[in-house]
Amino acid sequence: MTLNELASYTAQQFAKNYGRAPRWIVAAPGRVNVIGEHTDYNDGFVLPTAIERYTVMAADLSADGKEVVYIRDTSGAEPAFIDCSVPVKPGPPKWSNYVRGVIAALLERGIKSGGLDVLLHSNLPIGGGLSSSAALETCTATLLETVTGKQIDPLEKALLCQQAEHEFAGVPCGIMDQFISILGRENHLLLLDCRSHQTEFVPMMDPSVTLLIINTNVKRRLDAGEYAKRRRQCEIAAKILGVPSLRDANAEQLEDAKSKISGVTFRRARHVIGEIERTLLAAEGIRALNWPTVGNLMYASHASLRDDYEVSCTELDAVVEAAEAIGVKGGVYGCRMTGGGFGGCAVALIKTDQAETIAKSIAAAYKTKTGLDATIFASRPAAGVTVIKGSRLIAQAGSHPPGGFNPRMIGRNSLAFAGDFFQRNRFRALATRGHHHAEHVFLNQITARAAKPRGQQTVRGRRRAAALYVAEDGHT
Ligand code: GAF
Q: Which pTM value belongs to this model?
């Protein structure tokens, strides 16, 4: 189903439930993280993309004038009544806490929608590790922005959605999911620096490659306890290493401190440090259309998550093994678990024209190994949360960068910050030939690109050069 079809289905359902047409329709995408797992809460880098699977809300002002947000869900889940005339607190049903948290945070900022009748429909698998909860949060926030005509800075919006998840759902998540659900851009991945919140859109325009998403259909057991435990272990490792977060450490420092760290904590830190480096290398590989390199980084990421971070499971491992057995000749460049782990989905980077054969082959191997049916679909990188009907201010929230930056500057800024990261770590990074070569190419490209707009004397000339730079980088 296309996004338009999904929206019109939701509008029909709204009319069926409430007897009139909706005034507003908002759609928020799920996400798949290509690489950079469990790095966001370590101030590291992530490389997710929004996908063509959405949570949609159709709404109108409530007919009775009461200050209640009433939400019916097409899945048949228990409806939610959220009374906004009193301070909004966590409450039943459980799923409504993602919405309650966002409403409470907006009320604190003086953004008050009044009573609403809402119809919720989603084609994102719940508990599938594709960020259905972040989609629900960003959809709510954007709907309330649209209803009130009060626009929040996208960075603040992402942070308040994260806060809602922490405080109302009790999940101490990082910032990746809310960011990508808001900022996703068609045909682009988002390289996000989770410390500075600077962003770079990495183009993935090449039609010969596609992302295949393989749902193990094992409910993601993102055991909040296990997740929080990993966060603590990372904090302990950073403390022992004497750095503010694992983002500031490197493999050599960790090796030197081995005797002071427990075996488990050492492995957790090794994953994070390696994964941050792999993420930057993968972004560079994508810019260079070097798909085999990106694929190998994805396999390395999976092995590290399985062995060092211990957040995979037999079902995810079975999918990755099946993909690896097909290999590049069969059209698979790489594959890894994606998201928090303990179930949910894997993502594979594949040749588009072999998608069908690959999907069939992975499904068959997975069934043989686990006895389970996988659900498999392909997705192009999609746009972030979108107002489909009734927009007053925001045509497409995802098209705006955070922090009020000039969008055209974002690529250059982030190339510089990623360059700084490598620069700082350059003599300390893993000393393999491959790493050094990739770093060298990376730094050369940064210098070449960042230098492009300079040397232009007139404002007009500088603008033209900047536009050229933007177009080359795909930041249209
Ligand atoms: C979950 C969290 F919500 C994210 O913030 C991130 O930490 C991810 O797990 C692991 O990379 O999706």
A: 0.84
Same domain as 387, residue 374: no
> Are 176 and 78 within one domain?
yes
pLDDT at site 221: 62
Tokens of 237: 């490792």
Distance 17 CA to ligand 1 centre (A): 35
Same domain for 127 and 254, yes or no, is no
Does residue 460 share a domain with residue 395?
Answer: no
Residue 26, beta-bridge partner list? 57, 387
Distance CA 441, CA 152 (A): 39
Residues labelled catalytic:
177
265: left (phi over 0), alpha (psi -120 to 50) or beta: alpha
Residue numbers in the chain where pLDDT is lower than 50:
394-417, 420-476
Tell me the best of 41, 177, 305 to mutate to test the pocket of ligand 1, counting ligand atoms within 8 Å of each CB and taking the most: 177
Which of 34, 35, 38, 271 to mutate for ligand 1's pocket (most ligand atoms within 8 Å of CB)?
38
Q: Is the CB of 341 under 6 A from ligand 1?
A: no
**CATH code of residue 126:** 3.30.230.10
Q: Does the beta carbon of 30 lie inside 6 Å of ligand 1?
A: no
Domain ranges, residue 100: 3-204+382-405
Same domain, 105 and 182: yes
The pLDDT value recorded for residue 73 is: 97
C-alpha dist (Å) from residue 297 to 302, 379, 407: 9, 20, 29
